[in-house]
Design a protein that fits this description.
255 residues, alpha/beta, Rossmann fold, 2 domains, seven-stranded mixed β-sheet, binds S-adenosylmethionine
């Protein structure tokens, strides 16, 4: 793929995969092509490692966090379960929404919660809304502990952000899907890997070994789930696609 940007002529020429197309630079199509490349360069530059929320590092693209906020506010979940804690920034982000909505609590699962991260999360102003579980997210004892934290009739939202291999995400989906209530989502994050095989920090095997493929195959085998990105609650633009690290991530439970 070759992108030729001409700011004087106000065009973007896209060449590759057997096509060559010159787009108006200030168009929806040009925005989509430039965004894709911007995400790829940004990922390689570790742009997602430059943010924090209420004092804790959060390893996400800000647009994904804002879109998640839109879903959480609409869904009003009773419990938000996230596999993959790291520094705890995303847990604190979700807990801050729960606090503002006066509804919901957060459970974080990580195979290793480093002592300084645990200490920072447990002494945070929002710690009362956060439960930490240490262990592999697919270990039966861990899955059982998480299940035990959900009360009958509660709306649960599940975010998978731990080990992003196809096999691990597929196993997480099988282990946790039953906890997600109809109308709610499982979000298999970081499928952007599938589009990073050729960037300097990427790996060729990511073309197939990624969360997006795991989510796609899970949906094909489980008709109670569909891949459906949530509609934007506000849009006064002709744009329709998220600029995201989470392509094909949103598994909505429909039955
Ligand atoms: C991308 S980081 C999580 C980022 C965090 N959600 C955020 O937004 O800031 C991935 C985390 O997954 C954890 N992890 C890796 N394998 C795991 C497994 N099998 N079970 C649970 N956590 C795992 C790692 O220890 C790491 O902290």
């Amino acid at each position: 793929m070759k992108l030729t940007l001409d700011t004087e002529a106000q065009t973007l020429t896209v060449t590759g995969d057997g096509r060559s197309e010159t787009l108006p630079l200030y168009s929806k199509a040009a925005f989509e092509a430039l965004s894709r490349q911007w995400v790829r360069v940004g990922w390689n530059q570790k742009y997602q490692y430059t943010f924090s929320w209420m004092g804790r590092p959060v390893i996400q693209l800000p647009e994904d966090m804002l879109r998640m906020q839109e879903v959480i506010y609409r869904l009003q979940p009773d419990i938000i379960i996230e596999t993959g804690v790291a520094h705890g920034g995303s847990l604190v982000f979700y807990a801050s929404l729960c606090k503002a909505m006066d509804r919901g609590r957060v459970v974080g699962v990580d195979i290793e919660i480093r002592p300084h991260n645990r200490q920072a999360i447990q002494s945070h102003a929002l710690a009362g809304l956060i439960t930490l579980i240490e262990g592999s997210s697919t270990a039966p004892t861990v899955v059982q502990q998480v299940r035990g934290l959900i009360k009958p009739g509660e709306t649960a939202l599940l975010i998978l952000d731990s080990n992003h291999s196809y096999a691990h995400v597929a196993a997480e989906l099988e282990a946790y899907a039953g906890m997600v209530t109809p109308g709610s989502y499982i979000v298999a994050t970081d499928g952007i890997m599938l589009d990073l095989a050729d960037v300097p920090r990427g790996h060729p095997e990511w073309t197939t070994d990624n969360p997006t493929c795991a989510a796609r195959d899970f949906a094909a085998a489980h008709p109670e789930f569909v891949i459906e990105p949530p509609a934007w609650p506000f849009c006064e633009s002709e744009l329709k696609l998220n600029v995201t690290h989470w392509p094909g991530a949103w598994l909505k439970r429909i039955g």
